[in-house]
From TrEMBL:
One of its GO terms (molecular function) is hydrolase activity. It holds the Pfam family Abhydrolase_6. Keywords: Hydrolase. This is Hydrolase.
Length: 279
């Protein structure tokens, strides 16, 4: 029996008699990221970066100069996973700041969640020049959209392979880990308590998205279904949806069409009337 099957079996059995204990254990595992080393193809970009420390110890990497673009990676991700996009932005004359999310990389913390990701974006933005764009992958994309509801200001936002509704992802994880019904409910409640926000509020259908944006998602994404991108697009009036046929959840970050679409969006902002950007 594989270790995952053993865990599922344990959760399914013990979760009936001790739902809180099992839910608490799964909550900790769900919010504790692993530290995964960069791949060889990320190392040249890492060598060209400048490490900067923002307030509260938040760590980031910086490249280039010019109008500021802020990047946030996904769960257990790294800034250098955006390598192709970062190179394209720098060559186009933008300055890029890519954060290590809380409990990731050089940033402090042992646990993280989408609300902490969003607050990290707010903290970074408070120390940076006005943002041309915020770009996030997966949980980073969800946190970028949430951050706009908490006061983040940017001329545009790019969401890559992001979920539209956090509650759906929590339920999917709980079922995947074999939690019985009562333990699933306790798990979600514990996540909400730790994050400090009801999961039902973390839904783009409830957001006011009054800025231009781009949604990028691969049809063959097995982690976050493409239907999540369609839901974000439906809720976000001033958004463009780029459908990528292949790329999965992470390889999409290296897709040339992503780079082209981001640069096109930024070019449109540059030529837009000031009143349109301000609105």
């Amino acid at each position: 029996m594989s270790s995952l099957n053993w865990v599922r079996g344990f959760n399914a059995t013990v979760g009936w008699v001790a739902p809180h204990a099992v839910a608490s254990k799964m909550r900790r595992e769900f919010m504790t990221p692993r530290t995964l080393p960069p791949r060889d193809w990320e190392l040249p970009l890492l060598a060209r970066s400048e490490r900067v420390t923002l307030r509260f110890g938040l760590s980031a990497l910086r490249w280039g100069s010019g109008p500021t673009v802020l990047l946030m990676h996904g769960w257990e991700g790294r800034p250098t996973q955006f390598a192709g996009l970062i190179d394209a932005l720098v060559q186009a004359g933008y300055g890029v700041i890519a954060l290590d999310a809380p409990a990731h990389g050089h940033s402090p913390g042992r646990e993280a969640n989408v609300v902490l990701f969003a607050r990290a974006l707010l903290e970074a933005a408070a120390e940076l020049p006005p943002l041309k764009a915020v770009i996030g992958h997966s949980m980073g994309g969800a946190s970028a959209l949430l951050a706009t509801q908490l006061g983040l200001r940017a001329e545009a936002v790019v969401s890559i392979a992001a979920p539209s509704r956090i509650l759906t992802m929590l339920r999917r994880f709980a079922r995947y880990m074999g939690l019985p019904e009562q333990a699933r409910a306790q798990f979600i409640r514990l996540v909400e308590e730790k994050a400090g926000m009801p999961a039902g509020q973390l839904d783009v259908a409830r957001y006011q998205l009054d800025f231009p944006g781009l949604i990028v998602h691969a049809v063959d994404d097995l982690v976050v279904p493409f239907s999540e991108a369609e839901a974000i697009h439906e809720a976000w009036f001033d958004s463009q949806l780029l459908r990528v046929e292949t790329g999965g959840h992470r390889k999409i970050l290296a897709d040339p069409s992503l780079q082209q679409a981001v640069l096109q969006l930024l070019a449109e902002l540059r030529h837009a009337p000031l009143s349109a950007v301000a609105s």
